[in-house]
Sequence to fold (253 residues):
Amino acid sequence: MLLLPSESNSRDIMNGDTTSLVLDYAEAHKSFGVEELYEYLNQKTEIKRPSVLWHLFKLVNANELIRTGRGMYTKADKPIFSPQPTAEVRHIYDLLRTAFPFAKFCVYQGDVIEPLQHHLSSNSVIYVETEKGSAETVFNYLNESMSDVYLRPGKDFIYRYVDMGSNSVFVKNLVSESPMKKVSDVPMPTIEKLMVDILRDADFFYLQGCESERIIENAFSLYAVNRSRLFRYAGRRKTKGELLSILGHLGLQ
Fold:
């Protein structure tokens, strides 16, 4: 339906007013659900439930609100974890996207973990995660033109033969439904994925134990964390119990 200029302006004003009402409500409530927000807005203006959901969707995408669980939201008072891809990461992803246009990837460099660490340790490894059925093919492709490319290396192998401070490449399996986000068009891990992977993956052995607890504590302290996404992924990786125990110990449960 074509809107006349006056109708279009009225619609924009109405949307702006509703957005302000939602943000005001979020400011006054540490955490809130869709139904209670809908009830509040109904007292202020005539609005249908799908419109409430639309406003919430737009505000989450704009990083104004954070979805903390099913139908639960909070105001984004902490930044979203969004490290920028390095030139090396971008180069490798561009190669892979051209060679395997239908494959899924998550590509990042280990130094993205540095802001979360208590005891800094060098990690310049480039992690290339892809579906299990594609991992060996991707490894062979990268190994033809690059040195120090390893397929699913284990703890002992890394400890003996890999310099974590070099630009080695680890090709790993990408767990289905892994939480990722595109940063400058490169698919990278969310903070929820990193926390779980650090607990679970053999190539993060040097961070496991007390350091992984500090990383989780720093993640919650410094950045916005989607608990629903975190627990769902931890469940897929069979480490939800360990994660809940750590959060309980840290007083973050």
Notes: The CA atoms of residues 59 and 65 lie 6 Å apart. The longest strand covers residues 65-69. The chain has ten helices and nine strands.
